[in-house]
Design goal:
alpha/beta; seven-stranded parallel beta sheet; 199 residues; 6 helices
């Protein structure tokens, strides 16, 4: 398959790219260090990316910014980071990409464990993840030409515990490699409308 991957340079994205790259052609897109430079918070940038890439068999997104901080510090402006990046950015990848994905292709988006198991300071990210989950479920029944759509909800990653560990007390982290398998399941499998939770 020819797979367009948005956000392939982070901890999770690197693992997903490695897993999928063993079997498929990967084209990367992102703000830096990618085959195609793209800002997913800007719809025009997404459209330009698809024009440059052409048609693909699958789109995978492991990107999406969100503000982390306590509720009393969360402002409308800070909340917009998750709305524009993680939420609208991923949705626009689908809306603007439908005509660029082959029949029976797929989209795989990223949510996160905290939408179902909240943590202090994770409100904005959880909000965006929950909205993406609902979008995936609703969009799945209307996707054209047999195109599938799923989302992966990974737990905190072992490789990220030095940075994020204090936010996730009592959570059992998973390896990025294990989380990457869920993306392969979505891309190569037959299910749609699913949330693949990686505990």
């Amino acid at each position: 398959m020819k797979i367009l991957m948005v956000g392939a340079s982070g901890t999770l994205g690197t693992a997903v790219r490695k897993e999928l790259g063993q079997h498929h052609e990967i084209i990367t897109a992102g703000r830096k260090g990618a085959d195609i430079t793209m800002d997913m918070s800007v719809p025009e940038s997404i459209a330009s990316m698809y024009k440059a890439v052409g048609s693909v068999d699958a789109v995978v997104c492991t990107a999406g910014q969100a503000y982390f901080g306590p509720l009393h510090e969360l402002t409308p402006e800070l909340n917009e980071i998750a709305i524009m990046g993680k939420l609208k950015g991923q949705i626009n990848l689908v809306l603007l990409g439908l005509d660029h994905v082959h029949d029976w292709g797929s989209f795989t988006l990223t949510t996160g464990i905290i939408m179902d198991s909240p943590i202090i300071g994770g409100i904005s990210s959880a909000m965006a993840g929950g909205a993406i989950k609902a979008f995936v479920q609703a969009a799945a029944i209307e996707m054209p030409r047999g195109i599938r759509i799923n989302n992966v909800s990974p737990n905190v990653l072992k490789e990220s515990m030095d940075t994020y560990g204090p936010y996730f007390p009592g959570f059992e982290p998973v390896s990025a490699g294990r989380a990457a398998l869920a993306y392969r399941k979505s891309v190569e499998g037959a299910q749609t409308g699913q949330t693949y939770t990686v505990y």
